[in-house]
Amino acid sequence: MHLEQLKKSFRLDRGMIVRPISNYLYIFYSFVFILNVVHVFWDHPTLYSIIGVLGMVMTAISFPRADRVFKILGVVLLGAGAFFFFSGEAVWRDIPTFFAGNIGLLFLLSMLPWMNSVVKAGRYNKLLQSLLGNNARGLGSLYIRSEMTMVSLAAFLNLSSATIAQDLLKEQLKDVKMKIKNSFILMATLRGYSLALLWSPLEILLATSIFITGANYLEVLPWMLLIAILGIAMDSFIGKMMFRKEGINPPSDKEKAPEHSRKKLTTFIFALVLFLSIVVFLGNIIQLDFLFAVTIAIFPFAFLWAVFVKRTRSFLQIGWSNWKWKTNHLSNFIVLLLSLSFLTETLNQSPYLQYLQDPIVSLEGNPFLIMLFIQAAFLVMTVLGVHPLATMGIFGGVSELLLGAFPPVTLTILLASCAIATVPSAPYGLIVTMTSVALRMNPYQIVLRNLPYSLFLGFLGGGISLLTLLIY
Questions:
Q1: How far apart are CA 159 and CA 193, in angstroms?
Q2: What is the 3-state secondary structure (H, E, C) of 365-379?
Q3: Number of C-alpha atoms within 13 angstroms, CB side, residue 230?
Q4: How far apart are the first and last CA of the chain?
Q5: Exposed e or buried b per residue across 197-210, where buried means at least 16 C-beta atoms within 10 angstroms of its C-beta
Q6: pLDDT of 92-137, one tens digit each?
Q7: How far is C-alpha 52 from the geometric centre of its chain's CA atoms?
Q8: SS3 content of the chain, % helix, strand, coil (to 5)
Q9: Domain ranges of the chain
Q10: Distance, CA of 295 to CA of 112 (rounded, Å)
Q11: How many CB atoms lie within 10 A of CB 354?
Q12: In b/e form, how buried is each residue of 131-149, taking b as 16+ CB within 10 angstroms?
C-alpha cells in the first residue's frame, strides 16, 4: 500500500515537472525566432550556425512530442539527408547550418494565430461563416462558394487563409460525416489556395520563375489569370458534381448574415487590401523577403486593426492564449520542416543533383517532351518530399538550355504553373501539413485526394504555355 502511494506521488511530481516545461517552450522557440530576425539584418555565419544548433535542439525536443506519422517522416527525411551528406563534399561543421533554413517558416507559423485572433475578436469569422452558409442548398453549391472564398482570402492572407477557412468550414460542417467533411475541406481550401497563387506577384514560386527567365510580370499575368479562371471553373464543376447529393443543415437565424454585414464585409476587404499593401511596401520598397515581410507585419497590423474596431482587449486575450498554445505545439511542424531543410541542403551539395539535370540535356530540341518532363519532375520530386522551390532551382541551373527551347514568357508560365499545381499534393508542403494537423489526417491521404487535380492543373498550364508558343 505504501509502495503504491509512493509510485502515485512520483507520477504526480513528474507531471508537475514535465507539464510546466512543455507549457513554456514558447519562450525558447521565440528566442530562436528573434535570433533569426537579427540574422535577416546581420548576415553573420557564426550567428547562422548558432541558429542551426538551436534548430537541432528544437528537433530533438519535438521528436518525442510529435505525432507518429511525423516521427516516421522525420526519420525518413533525416535518413535520406544523411545519405546525401555522406555522398557529397559537405563537412561536419556544416551540419548546423543545414537545420537553419526553415526557421523563418516556423516563425511565420507561430505568428498566424494573431491574425486569426483579430478575425475572431472582430467577429469577422461569424460574418464569413454566414456568407458561406446563406442560401447554400447543399454541399455542391457550398463547394463553389467555399473555393471562391478561399481564393479571395488566399490572395490577401496567404497561409493565414487556410487556418481561417478551415476553421470556418469545420464549424459549418460539424453535422456532416467525418469522411465527407474532410474531403470537402481539403479539396476546397487547398485547391482554392493554389488557384490564388497562380497570379499573385507575391507568390515565391512565380517570383522565382520570373527571376530565372527574366520575363516581364505584366506579360505573364494575363496567361496566369486565364489558367486560374479555367481552373476555378473546372474544379468548381467537379466539386459540385461530387457533393451534389450531400445535404447541409440550413443556418439558424443567429448564423444568418446581419443587416450591417455589407458594411462589415467592406471593412474586412479594406483591411485585407491594406495588409497586402503593407506587405508589398515591405517587400518592394524596404526590400524584405516576402515571407519575412508577412511575418513581421502580422502582429502590428492585427493589433491596429483590433484598436480600430474597438476590440483590443478581446484580441489580446484571445491572441495571447492562442499564440502560446500554438507555439508550444509546433512539434509536428518542427520535425517536418527542419528535417526537410536538412534533406534539401544536403541534396544541393550532393553529386546526385547532377543526375536530376542530365535528362533535360538529353531532351534538347523536343519542346513537348521537355514540357512533360518538367511537369513530371515537379510532381515526382514533390511527392518524394523535395520542395518545388528546390526543383525550380534545379531547372534554374539549366535555364540557358531551356530558354533556347522556349521564349521567356512561355517558360515562366510552364515552370510556375507546374510548380504551383503540386502545392495541394505536396505531402511535406506547409499548407498540406497544416491541413493534415487540422483534420488529423495522414498527409498522403490528402495527396491521393488532390493528385488528379494537380495533374489537371499541370496539364492546363502546359497547354496554355503551348498556346503562347504560337504568339511569342
A1: 8
A2: CCHHHHHHHHHHHHH
A3: 16
A4: 86
A5: bbbbbbbbbbbbbb
A6: 988 999 999 889 889 988 998 898 788 778 777 666 666 665 555 6
A7: 22
A8: 80, 0, 20
A9: 112-325
A10: 8
A11: 10
A12: bbbeebeebbbbbbbbbbb
Sequence length of the chain is 472
Cβ burial of 251 (10 Å; 0-12, 13-18, 19+) is: middle
Per-residue pLDDT of 193-249, as tens digits, reads 999 889 876 677 887 788 788 887 778 889 999 999 999 999 999 988 888 877 666
HSE-up (13 A, CA, CB side) for residue 252: 3
Cα–Cα distance list, 276 to 157, 158, 294, 371 (Å): 8, 10, 9, 33
C-alpha cell read off for 329: 505545439
Output the DSSP codes for 95-157.
HHHHTSTTHHHHHHHHHHHHHHHHHHHTTHHHHHHHHHHTT--SHHHHHHHHHHHHHHHHHHH
User: Cα separations (Å) of 284 from 201, 204, 300?
Assistant: 11, 13, 19
Q: How far apart are CA 348 and CA 49, in angstroms?
A: 18
Q: How many CB atoms lie within 10 A of CB 65?
A: 17
> Which set of grid coordinates corresponds to residue 435?
491541413
The cell numbers describing 145, all together, are: 462558394
In the chain, the amino acid numbered 120 is K
Question: 442 near 69, Cβ under 8 Å?
Answer: yes
Q: Which amino acid does the sequence have at 175? A: D
- Cell numbers at residue 26, please? 514558447
CA dihedral 381, 387, 392, 393 (to 10 degrees): -110
Distance CA 325, CA 64 (A): 18
